[in-house]
Amino acid sequence: VQLVESGGGLVQPGGSLRLSCAASGFTFRSYYMSWYRQAPGKERELVAGITNSGGSTKYADSVKGRFTISRDNDRNTVYLQMNTLKPEDTGVYYCQTWNGRDYWGQGTQVTVSS
């Protein structure tokens, strides 16, 4: 199992970013996928999750209405569209799945600052 995140960067408050997570080594379309984040000095927290078909999603209260998780099962990729970004969204964003055990990507840094 390999998960590779991309798309992070530095953005001003109110801006947008789209994160991608390319998956390989397992039957991507069969598995629930999640995005987590970890801010400096804080524990890792769940940001969003999506079912294998993409038919159901869930979000942390702090990102509802601003972030959208989606997936493309033909491209083995899960996305996180982040709009109206705030400084408190700063952190390392990780892609995650469970396939007998937890699997994590290496993370991508998102910094929201003016």
Could you write a compact summary of the structure shown?
With 114 residues, this protein is mainly β.
Q: Helices and strands: which structural class?
A: mainly beta
Largest sheet: 7 strands, mixed
- Helix share of residues? under 10%
What value does the average pLDDT take? 97
Shape: globular
How many helices in DSSP terms?
0
Written as H for each helix and E for each strand, in order along the chain, the element string is: EEEEEEEEEEE
Distance between the termini: 37 Å
Q: From the alpha-carbon coordinates, what is the Rg to the nearest angstrom? A: 13 Å
Q: Report the sheet-strand fraction.
A: over 45%
Low-confidence stretches: none
How many beta strands in the DSSP annotation?
11
Task: Give a written overview of the molecule.
This protein has no helices and 11 strands. The chain is mainly β and 114 residues long. A hairpin with a 6-residue loop joins strand 4 and strand 5 (45-50). The protein has strands at 2-6, 9-11, 17-24, 33-38, 45-50, 57-59, 67-72, 77-82, 91-98, 102-104, 108-112.
